[in-house]
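Quick one: co-fold with iron/sulfur cluster.
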Amino acid sequence: MITASMLYSFSTCPHRVTLDLFGDPAERDEISPFVELLWERGSAFEKETIEKLGVPFLNLRDVPRIEREGMTMRAILSGEDLIYGGRISHAGLLGEPDLLRRTDHGYIPGDIKSGAGLEGQSEDADGKPKKHYALQLSLYSDILQGKGWAESQAAFVWDIHGQEVAYDLSQARGPRTPQTMWEEYEDALETVTAIANQAIETTPALIGDCKLCHWRSHCRRQINISDDLTLISELGRSRRDKFPPELRTVRGLANTDLDSLIRGSKTTIEGIGAKTLRTWHARAVLQKQENAKPYFIEPVELPTATVELFFDVETDPFRDLCYLHGFVRRVGGRNSTEQFIPFTADEATPELEKDAFADAWRFVHEHADAIVYYYSPYERTTWKRLARQYPDVASEDEVMALFEQPRFIDLYQDFVRSKMIWPTSSLSIKALAKFLGFQWRDTDPSGAASVQWFHHWVETGDPAIWARILAYNEDDCRAMRVLADALRKLNVA
Ligand code: SF4
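Sure, here it is.
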């Protein structure tokens, strides 16, 4: 049986479908606490939504699975208006849509999601349907149509904002997506079926989702053994798969004659330009050197100032809350002067979030001559979001103007990514600072873990958890200082 959760896994990583079906269960990692938290929150949100529903419905969620499918069928045949927790199957497909709703054109499936119903939605842009939601809904709709219980490809999501978001599966997800959602589903279904029938093989790839995956240790071993090309930072699965087989290892790319692949600004590899290929090649060559040292690809000038601030925010994506703006302040380049200055919302309330933002905003303006280092655009986008929410603290334009000042340095965008070659398989601050010898005090330092700590802090108020969050953020700030100092000592190649 092909299930909606297989399609969900497929949309993240095809190899996960393979391993979930055929992998050795003894090699699975523990489920990450962050993933457990996601599940917990999803179930709690679903329960809350159903409890508040206010319209009659048939609840099949607690019916034993073995009886649920028959009861769902009988409920549909008797014309039940709304069915919660049903189970349906047809022609090798099995689905458990949260909701089945009767309409003039038969039943349509819906899911309750503890996330936004659309992605990329903002004040300036319409959102678009999420591919993994659309794949799951399509499978339910396919079963309903196969059974003759639906006449359309309509579906819906009840999302975290209490909105019903329509998913018309006969439409494309956006103007840049040539296929309709239904066509995307048909392609995905074909590949997942082929994986399940062992008609095609998949291989692991080092991608962002690996960190939270229950096959992470197994795949990392395989990737290292095979010297997979995704060990090159920011290369990824889809671009790896465009390379010819002989170039799908780091060694293979490092040893290749680049001139044989490059034609002006293009290359013989579809969709990959000459500049990108040169960067990846340089990363591959450096990775294969002993005692490799990162280097600049062009001369750069690193600004100097008496006072430096190393800045990092912590957020809770579930509550859409920024609860910590951490700064390490250093004076005269002397580490002995370092001080950690956090501005915090130690309760998950908008009032405290606003106060913390206002304090951090004031602090940065009190240090008008300081250089402010941060890593990646996340701090800027978080402050923009806060300005939208609390315009009496600062306007969005003021936040933009602040981050455009030359004294605001995004170490990732301004230097690491655009002007340097590193031998690491990731360009995250964690990977670079660890490469430079920095150690976090925490045994499990990660953004995902910190979200989970904050969740427990809100639930328990345990001061040890709060101390852990602060220490983690302070170390993130210090890691940036280690990186900024290292950049001053590195050469141009
Ligand atoms: S660890 Fe990575 S490559 Fe392996 S199955 Fe999970 S997401 Fe895929």
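If it helps, The chain has a mean pLDDT of 95.
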